């Protein structure tokens, strides 16, 4: 029914436009019949009035005719403007997409990639929502604990589901949402579904495959984090991990002081040091030459999912006060720290090593890990072994303050462009997949 109403409205607009064009043709372009000759008007004043009017014959209806022509022209232009606005409105809202944010990565999509706002601003609110137009698409976003299957209004025929598939408990919850979306597809409540997935850190995402259209499912598009082996740039796309929105890491606006103020530390590392990991090697190298005195280092032995107010403030201060942010591999090479450092203009120094996993084993991933970031020309420092770090820090000491400022500008401009590029790619992919093609 909704599609039929849209087609009826479009037909009415086109019909009105054709009528307006015909009216304009009648007024301005259609040949007019010559007026019947009038008998000469005799006046007692003789030729004096004729002389006063020059060589033109006086027409008592001339003023009315001019006014009517002006009014017709105005109506014609108003009709054209109305048709143009109607067409523009139809183009702008030709696709409506509702995003269901059921994983924290949805906040990175909406607030950081799209630059969208949410009401209420309180991050603990049970229900938060926002909307914006982009390209030919009107996006609405909902999130919060109160967004439960069957208990909210589905106001678009196209849905993007943001899900967490990192572990078994999260996958179980994610499949409930997929089954709900599948029911809406079968009952013709919605037409298309895309999924943004926080994937498993070892890229064990096989559970999602039966839901994809290419495997007989109903999910048109999949955007997934990490260097997933099945990324093909056709219906499966790599998506950035982003910042730790689940820890309420904020959207950071670049400032003059962030770019131009001196920073107190060459580098920083605040994080968990796992046993028998390269992070232990990193700590040893920093201690050997006293480099830890030049850097803000705060290591812990056990990972903590939540930060205290104090630890979170220290972390943000470390990013803001350090020229470099050290990013050793964890369970996966890609980590939140990379994007959080970019937010504060602290250049990531990344251990460019593929972690043991099912990630990146594809001919498409010749430069894995971090294929997405490398493809976009990320201006980071990539090293294969932390033994290279002393040389990196020595070079850092030799850099002038102005060189560091220029590097910060380049990094922060790149990050802004990266987010804008991801936003446009996301929109284009949805529109190309969800909008009907114009093939004749």
Folded structure, characterized:
With 440 residues, this protein is α/β, with parallel strands linked by helices. It folds into two domains: 91-225, Rossmann fold (3-Layer(aba) Sandwich), CATH 3.40.50.300; 246-420, Glycogen Phosphorylase B (Rossmann fold). Helix content is 40%, strand content 16%. The strands form two sheets. Strands 2-3-1-4-5-6-7 form a seven-stranded mixed beta sheet, sandwiched between helices. It has a five-stranded parallel beta sheet with strand order 9-8-10-11-12, sandwiched between helices. α1 (2-29) runs antiparallel to α3. The longest helix has 34 residues, at 401-434. The relative contact order is 0.09.
Task: List the defining traits of the structure above.
single chain; 440 residues; alpha/beta; Rossmann fold; 2 domains; 7-stranded mixed β-sheet; 5-stranded parallel β-sheet; 12 strands; 40% helix; RXLT1 xylosyltransferase; RXYLT1-like; ribitol beta-1,4-xylosyltransferase activity; transferase
Concise description?
By secondary structure, this protein is α/β, with parallel strands linked by helices. The chain contains twelve helices and twelve strands.
**Major β-sheet annotation:** 7 strands, mixed
Which runs of at least 5 residues are low in confidence (pLDDT < 50)? 27-61
* Global Rg: 32 Å
Query: What's the average pLDDT?
Result: 85
């Amino acid at each position: 029914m909704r599609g039929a109403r849209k087609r009826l409205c479009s037909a009415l607009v086109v019909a009105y436009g054709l009528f307006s064009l015909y009216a304009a043709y009648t007024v301005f372009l259609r040949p007019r019949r010559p007026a019947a000759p009038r008998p000469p008007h005799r006046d007692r004043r003789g030729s004096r009035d004729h002389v006063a009017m020059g060589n033109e014959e006086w027409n008592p209806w001339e003023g009315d005719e001019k006014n009517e022509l002006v009014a017709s022209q105005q109506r014609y232009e108003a009709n054209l403007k109305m048709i143009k606005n109607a067409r523009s409105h139809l183009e702008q809202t030709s696709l409506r997409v509702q995003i269901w944010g059921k994983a924290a990565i949805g906040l990175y999509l909406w607030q950081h990639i799209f630059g969208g706002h949410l009401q209420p601003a309180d991050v603990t609110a049970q229900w938060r929502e926002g909307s914006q137009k982009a390209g030919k698409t009107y996006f609405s976003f909902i999130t919060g604990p109160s967004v439960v299957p069957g208990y909210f209004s589905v106001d678009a025929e196209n849905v993007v589901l943001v899900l967490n598939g990192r572990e078994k408990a999260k996958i179980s919850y994610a499949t409930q949402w997929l089954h709900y979306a599948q029911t809406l597809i079968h009952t013709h409540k919605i037409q298309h579904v895309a999924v943004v997935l926080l994937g498993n850190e070892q890229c064990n995402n096989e559970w999602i495959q039966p839901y994809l259209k290419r495997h007989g499912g109903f999910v048109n598009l999949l955007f997934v984090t990490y260097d997933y082996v099945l990324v093909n740039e056709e219906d499966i796309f790599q998506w950035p991990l982003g910042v730790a929105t689940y820890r309420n890491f904020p959207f950071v606006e670049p400032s003059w002081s962030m770019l131009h103020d001196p920073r107190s530390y060459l580098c920083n590392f605040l994080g968990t040091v796992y046993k028998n990991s390269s992070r232990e090697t990193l700590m040893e190298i920093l201690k050997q030459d006293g480099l830890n005195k030049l850097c803000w280092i705060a290591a812990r032995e056990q990972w903590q999912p939540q930060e205290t107010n104090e630890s979170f403030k220290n972390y943000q201060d470390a990013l803001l006060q350090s020229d470099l942010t050290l990013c050793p591999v964890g369970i996966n090479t890609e980590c939140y720290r990379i994007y959080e450092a970019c937010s504060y203009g602290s250049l990531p120094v990344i251990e460019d090593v593929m972690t043991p996993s099912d990630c990146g084993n594809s001919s498409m991933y010749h430069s894995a890990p971090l294929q997405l970031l490398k493809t976009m020309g990320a201006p980071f420092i990539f090293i294969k072994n932390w033994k290279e770090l002393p040389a990196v820090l020595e070079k850092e000491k030799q850099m002038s303050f102005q060189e560091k400022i220029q590097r910060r500008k380049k990094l922060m401009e790149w990050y802004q462009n990266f987010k804008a590029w991801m936003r446009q790619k996301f929109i284009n992919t949805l529109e190309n997949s969800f909008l009907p093609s114009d093939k004749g």
